[in-house]
Specification:
The chain is an alpha/beta fold. It has six domains: 162 residues, Aminopeptidase (3-Layer(aba) Sandwich), CATH 3.40.630; 127 residues, Rossmann fold (3-Layer(aba) Sandwich), CATH 3.40.50; 136 residues, Succinyl-CoA synthetase domains (Rossmann fold); 151 residues, 3-Layer(aba) Sandwich (Rossmann fold); 156 residues, D-amino Acid Aminotransferase, Chain A, domain 1; 73 residues, Dna Ligase, domain 1. 35% of the residues lie in helices and 24% in strands. The protein is built from 28 helices and 40 strands. The chain has an eight-stranded mixed beta sheet, sandwiched between helices. The protein has a seven-stranded mixed beta sheet with strand order 11-12-10-9-13-14-15, sandwiched between helices. Strands 17-16-19-18-20-21-22 form a seven-stranded mixed beta sheet, sandwiched between helices. Helix 26 crosses helix 28. The longest helix is centred in the first third of the chain and has 23 residues.
Length: 880
């Protein structure tokens, strides 16, 4: 949401405020705020006494936003409590900034919040720096400026400080904003997760109704604080006192649960707002898209309440200090360390039951439903501060702010696993493609790139989710991808080995010492290479000895132990005596067990691991855990620095005001400004003469038609190769004119490039997710072999490496060492930088890029510009 329209945001203590642009009609309030400043604040603001022209100053601050002026105000409970404004200095990209905050809210982060909104707006208008003159004594304001996270300088000495803040966005600033957002968000969600009192609005006396079930679950959960019910037809329900209306409640509840039909639910929400309720859970459905739903939105906005729902299962917290169950689940949620947020109530029910069957429990369960306010991003921030939650689970059907999600998920995943169920992967969600890059950049590809870069462990089904949770719950993360398989059934071992290789795991090479040790304990007919087949005749004790020998091998990172019971014994029963191994991951497989996954020893406190019914399931989980461990071991930031384009201002000027597909000559100029290598290129309009181009370029050359509707030039007959001599070039030009007729706009002429391997590099910008960088096989292979990888910009060096190694053909592509991998890596980083510097770049298609032993060069380019989305994904605000 834009600042001009106004947006709700959170102060450090969790209060909801409104931040919006100021206009002349706000002059009186701006004057009132300045008038009630303390004597000290007046001195700091005006470097002395209050000026006699304060009314004039207030009018100037509240002037209509324009090229040289902008001001924002912070409103709490409808009262203006803070103002920040900037005035652009003449003929510069600098602006002088000033701010005023009500003394009563000085410690709540009002000044910082206003400055963030000023920064966001200033960047959009092209400003480069904020400057301010501050009294040296005014340490609080100097600290506000210094703590913003911008590059900051302040003069030293004298009674005044000249402060300069560089507005260039960098990771330090974004991290500072995110940290402030997390602190404020966690404070606001305390009203939801640790309420001092709860009211259930709409709980009925009839068992079986949703409201009655929620009240029954709340009472049974052991919630230690006061509970009241709003029901005009009862004096008490389930022993809980009932009153006829929200206004009649004996105390103002901190949290209210609404279980009423849509129109009545909207009225109850409005009453809650007037009463001062801080958080709501709306179970009611049928609100979205109706007048009642709009009333709920308006009330939440007006009264500054946090809201879960509507149309949701509810919320559970198992915090022993304040446990409660505000859902209509059939069975209680087991306390535990797994946090769950889901848009689907059905998925929430399935997870609660499945985890309970495994003996695992939840720290929190939040069903967001129609997601009017509280979302997955809020829970990521809450769990970051909640040490009870050791594993986070997400089921998200949509992303409100995926770029913010990426940063939040990445930060949380550095300290504990984050799991997500993919949804919306079907072809119906894909957009029509205008280039090879766009064809590759489907919503599913973009979402998967988001998950991979953020360290999120993604699965496709709830069953797979339970598999991975079980694997994480009882075992260490594997130290690497080298897996050994030990089995007393040869077939099960072979299936496990095949599954490991399909999942990209490495079958470990057992050392000679290990093989000798195995030979001494196993029958002569046993196989002591990986996979190890102990034979079916061994006892449980011998199988355990063999497993210990394999675990002791330094070349083994993880083990899959597949066992079946035989007349000689049940080796599976001996696994628990071997566990837990030091720093090694072990998964058990028992083909034929009833449960898909179960603890090896139900109810045991030690010797526990996940036991799967199929080797493929165990291998799939192990592979996901290996990839997560590898992600954890990657550096969070690159030490390397890619040189910026020679003239970024020229690049920005080139992009300004452009829309649609660039003309070929303009697309080439874009690459030149970005420092991206492109083969020498001449463009000849269809109606012009080819003489100059034919004379300027050495033979042989290639001619490429630029014709309306011609996307794939080679397949459409729009490429003529190896044309030699001026006469042949003229003849080829005439051939293309004849072939495409009036559709021909012009012809690109280039010298034939040196031989090499052709790849594709491109960008597809999504208005929600941002730019996606695509890498794949190029040229004629693009359509024949759909082999591509994608990552969201900005790319780190590790992301570029993963793109290069992310193709099915990558191993063969780079195996010879004859192609310049470093040049391709640099190209990917430059393309990513271009997408950052030029947000108008909606689509870029470099295909083919010719890779040689001594570099790489683009042979063809298509680029499309469109007006970028104006919303700042990192500006702090709540959903509206």
């Amino acid at each position: 949401m834009s600042v001009e329209a106004g947006s709700r945001a959170l102060l450090a203590g969790g209060d909801v405020v409104l931040v919006r642009a100021l206009h002349p009609a706000d002059t009186v309030e701006v004057l009132a705020l300045h008038t009630r400043l303390t004597q000290e604040d007046t001195y700091f603001r005006f470097f002395g006494a209050r000026p006699s022209t304060l009314d004039k100053l207030a009018a100037e601050i509240a002037a209509a936003p324009g090229p040289g002026h902008y001001a924002v105000g912070c409103y709490r409970h409808g009262e203006l409590v803070g103002v920040a404004n900037y005035e652009v200095l003449k003929d510069t990209t600098d602006a002088e900034v000033a701010l005023v905050v009500d003394a009563d809210l000085r410690t709540q982060g009002v000044a910082t919040l206003l400055m963030e909104h000023l920064v966001s707006h200033a960047r959009k208008t092209g400003l480069k720096r904020f400057i301010a003159e501050v009294l040296a004594e005014n340490a609080k304001v100097i600290r506000v400026f210094a703590d913003l996270g911008l590059r900051f300088e302040a003069s030293v000495g004298g009674p005044e400080r000249d402060v300069v803040m560089n507005l260039e966005e960098d990771a330090t600033y974004l991290e500072a904003v995110l940290q402030r957002d997390s602190v404020a968000d966690a404070a606001s969600l305390t009203h939801l997760f640790k309420p001092s009192s709860i009211a259930v609005i709409g709980a009925g006396r009839r068992p079986g109704s949703v409201g009655h079930a929620i009240l029954a679950n709340l009472v049974a959960s052991g919630y230690p604080e006061p509970i009241e019910v709003v029901n005009p037809h009862a004096g008490e329900i389930l022993g809980v006192p009932s009153v006829p209306s929200v206004a009649a409640l004996n105390r103002t509840p901190e949290l209210a649960v609404v279980c009423l039909p849509a129109p009545a639910a909207a009225e109850a929400v409005e009453e809650c707002g007037k009463r001062g309720v801080r958080a709501l859970v709306i179970i009611s459905s049928g609100l979205t898209g109706t007048e009642a739903g709009e009333r709920v939105h308006a009330a939440v906005r007006e009264y500054g309440m946090r809201l879960v729902g509507p149309n949701c299962l509810g919320v559970v917290s198992t915090d022993p200090a304040c446990p409660y169950d505000l859902t209509f689940l059939a069975t209680p949620v087991r306390p535990g360390n797994i946090g769950v947020v889901t848009q689907s109530g059905g998925v929430g029910i399935a997870l609660a039951e499945s985890l309970g069957d495994l003996g695992l429990g939840m720290s929190t369960l939040v069903s967001t439903g129609d997601k009017y306010d509280v979302s997955g991003n809020d829970l990521l921030m809450w769990w970051t501060a909640d040490r009870r939650t050791e594993l986070a689970v997400l089921y998200l059907e949509s992303f409100g702010n995926p770029r913010k999600f990426s940063r939040l998920a990445r930060r949380l995943a550095r300290t504990r696993p984050v799991l997500a169920v993919r949804s919306g992967s079907g072809g119906t969600a894909q957009r029509a493609a205008a280039s090879h890059t766009a064809a590759a950049a489907t919503p599913a590809v973009t979402r998967d790139a988001l998950f991979e870069q953020a360290g999120v462990i993604a699965v496709d089904t709830v069953a797979e989710l339970i598999d991975v949770i079980a694997g994480l719950a009882w075992q260490l993360l594997p130290g690497g991808p080298r897996v050994a398989v030990v089995s007393n059934a040869g077939g099960a071992g072979v299936l496990a080995a095949d599954a490991c290789e399909r999942e990209g795991l490495v079958m470990a090479e057992l050392s000679e010492v290990t093989r000798d040790r195995l030979a001494k304990v196993l029958p002569a007919e046993a196989a002591v290479a990986n996979p190890v087949d102990t034979t079916a005749a061994v006892s449980a004790e011998v199988f355990a000895d063999a497993l210990r020998a394999v675990l002791a091998d330094d070349g083994v990172d993880a083990v899959i132990a597949a066992t079946v019971p035989t007349a000689a014994g049940d080796p599976g029963a001996a696994l628990a005596t071997v566990l837990p191994p030091e720093y090694k991951t072990v998964f058990a497989v028992r083909p034929g067990q009833r449960a898909r996954v179960a603890p090896l020893v139900p109810g045991a406190r030690s010797g526990v691991t996940a036991c799967y019914d199929d080797p493929a399931a165990a291998a799939a989980v192990l592979a996901r855990l290996v990839r997560y461990e590898q992600w954890l071991n990657r550096p969070e930031a690159d030490d390397e620095a890619l040189a910026p384009p020679e003239d970024p201002e020229a690049l920005r000027a080139f992009a300004t005001g452009r829309e649609g597909w660039l003309a070929p000559a303009d697309a080439v100029e874009l690459l030149r400004l970005a420092g991206i290598p492109m083969v020498e290129t001449r463009y000849v309009e269809a109606g012009d003469s080819m003489d100059a181009a034919a004379a300027a370029l050495d033979s042989p050359v290639v001619l490429k038609a630029d014709a309306e509707g011609l996307l794939h030039k080679s397949a459409g007959g729009g490429v003529l190769l190896n044309v030699r001599g001026a006469d042949r070039i003229m003849e080829a030009f005439r051939t293309l004119r004849s072939r495409f007729g009036s559709a021909l706009r012009g012809v690109t002429v280039q010298p034939m490039a040196e031989p090499g391997r052709e790849v594709l590099v491109g960008v597809r910008s999504d208005p929600v997710f941002g730019p996606l960088v695509v890498f794949g096989l190029g040229g004629v292979d693009t359509d024949l072999i759909d082999d591509r990888a994608a990552r969201l910009a900005p790319l780190a060096g590790a992301d570029a490496d993963l793109l290069i190694d992310g193709l099915r053909a990558s191993k063969a592509l780079w195996a010879s060492g004859q192609l310049d991998r470093a040049a391709v890596r640099e190209l990917l980083l430059k393309v990513s930088r271009l997408a950052e510097l030029v947000p108008e770049l909606a689509e870029l298609d470099l295909n083919p890029v010719r890779v040689r032993p001594d570099g790489c060069v683009a042979l063809d380019v298509r680029a499309r510009f469109e007006r970028p989305a104006s919303a700042d994904p990192f500006l702090r605000h709540l959903r509206d």
